[in-house]
């Protein structure tokens, strides 16, 4: 079967909104979820693209997410703005808080957005890019499911805990990184298992804490953090700041809560926004221009800045539309027509 | 020559204050510098202990630091508190700002301390521990000298850019990490050079960007960040947040400023303080008790929490005093008697 014609970004957005509306999400949440999923597909970041729809529908079918939740903003006028997702998906909560976060950061230099009580599947780069567009630097982090052992340990306690950072640039895409603090993504180990190939050394340990290259032993054991004890310390920091500090689940409790049945995790998230204009004011320097000196020098010596592949895919998608496969289009059709009933067993 | 009798922490503090007073530092700066140096020695963290005195004296002798600088606090009532070190050593600037930082963080949940225009040599764990004692989580970071190439690059642009994090614990030492974002410390490569042994693979590249195990080629080339592209991205973030964003030097400018002659770097620093009580209030959970669940589980599976060696050395030093060598005592005597004139050529 030939590939279907490319679909434009706005058209794909409408299709995805339609799927989620059909499955019971209110308009706010359907739109917010579609923003994140279509951005992932647009950037050829397939792990956060249309692939995510089925996972979202499964958590809906399992009754583990509130489809009609309306995120609630709490702002006591401090540096911390909170949004209670009331058990809904994270993206609507982020959209509910992001403008207030940016406003507060510009007003007092630095502010935090706390998202509580959400089903999380968003790409963190989506959040930090939104803040970079407003001229702000930002850090975003959250726990996930406890699949990762601390360095020197043998049993999963840490999530793959992503960390993202965004920095505004003038006239070009922002400096953005977003990575798991595990060596590899769990999905990559799954791919090795399916293809029957060993995983590289250093990715995981088996149940006894012994290093393994067997994907089955790795999935039954524990993944490892990137960067040995340093990455392990950063992952622990993410558990503390985006879990314990907020009074929301850390990765172990998130896993226990859903029973490890492959559904999206329920936890909170933390976003810090910093206003370079406020921080640099006394120096008389232009912080964005200063940053460019470093970023152009990095690119100038042939080292790749993070996210460049995504930005390149985005440019192509905005110009030519997004090329989906027939299978992807068929799945969209089925989900749009039959909603949750279209989920395969 | 037999080792001298152990010296108590307060007595060593007085000796170090005396050295710096003899060399022209005002009382505030001499005390603040001594706090950091004696804490390093006490914790058997020798790289930030008495070893640092000579480096501080050299920068004084070179006229690159203001011995009588009085740090100036700027507080516009926002979330960002600034201290201009006026060209003095960093520790007095930190001490000038830390109480206000903690007060602001407790008041509005989150605050930042910017240190400007300082000669930096402080151990960042010293800063985050001071904030953890006040019940606050914190992050501290600064640039250094551009000795590190970005991942995929060949030429030094990044510093060894340390990152420290502190988290308060109840009834025990805080959770603290503090590490360079380079794979190894520059001093470790120096040690290999002196002993004529190769450095491990992955530490450095030569001038052409080719991986090397030759310490001379490494020192002439570039060190590498920890954790490949992830560590490189974090190091870049530190340049942007603690350099460009503040309008202070990034590591390349810091190196150019002193001419790479081995003197302490001149740059700024950024400390973020977060109040777990504010962040968790709406949850009804105790954030420190929640954090303990993770930290005791990590230690319980035999994985070492960071900083435990330091804390153990500290306990011993507080009980038994600090065991210095005769050479270290002699150097203290010489510096105290002759000040800068005691510097060897």
Automatic annotation (TrEMBL), chains A, B:
The keyword Oxidoreductase applies. The keyword Oxidoreductase applies. This is Ldh family oxidoreductase. The lineage of its organism: Bacteria, Pseudomonadati, Pseudomonadota, Alphaproteobacteria, Rhodobacterales. GO terms for molecular function: oxidoreductase activity. Belongs to the LDH2/MDH2 oxidoreductase family. InterPro entries: Mal/L-sulf/L-lact_DH-like_ah (IPR043144), Mal/L-sulf/L-lact_DH-like_NADP (IPR043143), Mal/L-sulfo/L-lacto_DH-like_sf (IPR036111), Malate/L-lactate_DH-like (IPR003767). Keywords: Oxidoreductase.
